[in-house]
Fold this sequence. Notes:
Strand content: 35-45%
Shape: elongated
Number of domains: 2
Radius of gyration: 28 Å
Helix content: under 10%
Number of helices: 0
Largest sheet: 4 strands, mixed
Structural class: mainly beta
CATH class of the largest domain: Mainly Beta
CATH superfamily of the largest domain: Cadherins
Strand order of the largest sheet: 7-14-13-10
Amino acid sequence: MVNYTLGDSGLRTNHFYMKSVSGEICISQDLDYETQSSFEFPVVATDRGGLSTTVMVRIQVTDVNDNEPIFNPVEYNVSLRDDIQTTTPFAVVLATDRDSDRFGTISYKIVSGKDANLFRIDRSTGELFVTRGNFLTRSSSYHINVSAMDGGGNKCSQDAQVTINMINSHMPIPLFQQSTYSFVVPEDVFKNSVVGNIKAVTSDNGKSSTC
């Protein structure tokens, strides 16, 4: 008769236990692919005479669709010029899903909002576009809700809320003084230390002002 036990090593896990007589490996704790997707541990077989042998066991956990998309942030406030082109995205909403592969692939959809037909969204990227720019001057602001769904059919429990504020195309817009800002920070920097400074300027009637 052979007796089976989990080996004593740094690889031993609390997620499984052995049935000593049958050699069956059983689940003792909930598994979560996003926390740990694989396990490896030794199993020892010992006979009545005390002789034993050890084998390594590897267990791969497969992902299931147990997470839903989550928007972060949930609220978006966007300023939109009334002369924007229909091919130019004016904002991007973003949801994340902890699942992998197709279960973590997200598609977006505008689900509600007065005059929502004035806007469209790229289902894959979350980029927002206008569909009829010449109608945007009818209101000073618009509100739309965007939903997210993953590849397994799970929908977000809270939609993204997008507020779009219209800006006259003749008004000056702020421009950053550089296209890219890079800063170097030592790892022992104190909390609340200034990392760097970025500036944007507007031009109004030929005069520049700092934002």
